[in-house]
Fold:
Amino acid sequence: MSGNDSSFEVDLRLLLANGKKIEAIKLYRERTGAGLAEAKEAVEAFEQGESLPKTEAPSSDVDREVVSLLEQGKKIQAIKVYRERTGVGLKEAKDAVDAIAAERHILAPSGSGCLGIVLLFLMVVLTFYC
Structure:
């Protein structure tokens, strides 16, 4: 999302009008890659009538690379690439990669459950110790 599009703002307004602040914050995080505190602050400011902060979407090159990795069943590598290119945290990168996969209807290969969790854990551990 480069800047903020009006359909995104309309979606946020509808969620807030229906008392669904948590869903609005989740939507903001998915669309911007923002952390929880940043998203909460932005949504609350928006709720008070302020404009949404301008955000830069990840480049289409990042999206293409992430999609390619997802199609190859390399979700962990896709998360790592997303983190490196955008500078977001692990949780935000995972959420963004999950959103990209859902948007493009890319399913995780079957049988990757336990191995994927172990690899994600190892990636987190290596991130903190390297």
